[in-house]
Amino acid sequence: MPKLNKDILFLIFEEFQKDSKSLFSCLMVNTLWCETVIPILWKDPWRYNIIYFNKYYLFTTITFYLSDGIKEFLINQGIELPSISHKSLLFDYLSFCRSINIDILNDIISMGSSDSYNQFLLQQEIYSLMIKKCPELKYLNIESIKHQIFYFPEAKACLESLCELKCDTSIDSIHFYGLARICKSIQRLIIINKCLEVNFGIVKLIKIQENLKYFEWRDDFETEEFLGDPYEEILLALEKKADVLNHLIMSFNFIEVYEHTTLQDVLTKLHKLKTLIITGNFHIISSRNQLNKMVYRELEIFNIDFISLGKASNIIENSGGHIKEIPLSYEYYEYGCDDIEEESLIFIRKIYENCPLIENLSLLCLSSDEHLTELEKLLKDCKYLKSLSLIIIDLDRLTTDEEIGKELLKILIRSTPNNLRKIKFYGNSQFPLKSLEEFLEKWRGLNALSLYTTGDIYKSNDYMKLIKKYKNKGVIKDFIS
Question: Is the pTM of this model over 0.85?
């Protein structure tokens, strides 16, 4: 086997940059592999699924870089610092770092002292050190920050290259005003909303960005007593980014904003969206005129909770044929809908007419012959479908769940796209043992299938034996009931 040079190794190892176990194993192969892996591991050393507050080696490595004067000052305050010789580090680890995560740094810093004042002192010195040692910072997570890092001498050189920021609304506005002076090229902004009032610093930070492509907002509070509308100013700032904003993800977890007209008005302006996800207690009540303005020709991911199938169909029809994911929840229909038969039928048709690239689909389908015929047409036309969540509703109760399940399996085996590998069944369907076995036997040679369904019947011995049999044959990857 020819020897791979360092550039080739780097490209290979970058494919494993999220897999710390594999990268740590590569460190031990030889010197060349070690020298190649270290910059990848330290590019974002906070991303791995490990417990950071007991990783003393990280505390040792970071504090090694502190100057002797600062170390002496901290030790005089009663802070325990590891003793390490000046020749102990093989690499300039922090120079590879392009990411700062304040929460994780605080966990590591807590190993130096349990005293809150001493932790405050350590935080200030280590934050300053990180700003100094990270020449081109790309990612910054400032949740729970207490220090105004933008005042550090090297802050401008470090932060002006920032591409992604994660923060929360409990942070004082002054932090965001400071960042807004420096950071104008943030492309990804993720905000955890912990307050019920506007954070005007975040509003200012959004306004100042020149190329904001991704915006994510998650509610995370326990009260419903509003002090004001925490959304309106944020949304109006986002409206000004309509020419560049590609991804909008908003999660309203604890509040009801059924008639938030600002959000609905702003949605009509964001025509460049590739991702549109709005989850939580929000109900699109747009008029027909507003719906006609919701045109997203580049849309790839579409998911809005509590949207009717009729309104969803309108948005899909006005998309540009690029949609790959529609993971709707259909909770809207738990509260009753007089037009469910017609709307669900139209919805299925709009998908196979306008979404040829669909890969991930959640679909509500009635058990009528007409609906099942349209479902089969969808399966034949949507050749790239990989994952299907199927909610079957039997309004008339003229057929048994077993009959519905049997017919579904027949449709799937006749018309299944070659790429399909995950199917979830909900609602009025149940698979007779013999029909399920025939289905699995005919599935042989296709992708290993992950099946998710409901009902205790699948936990019986006969079904468990059948499932085990086809797992051993490689037909079933997972079966969850």
Answer: yes
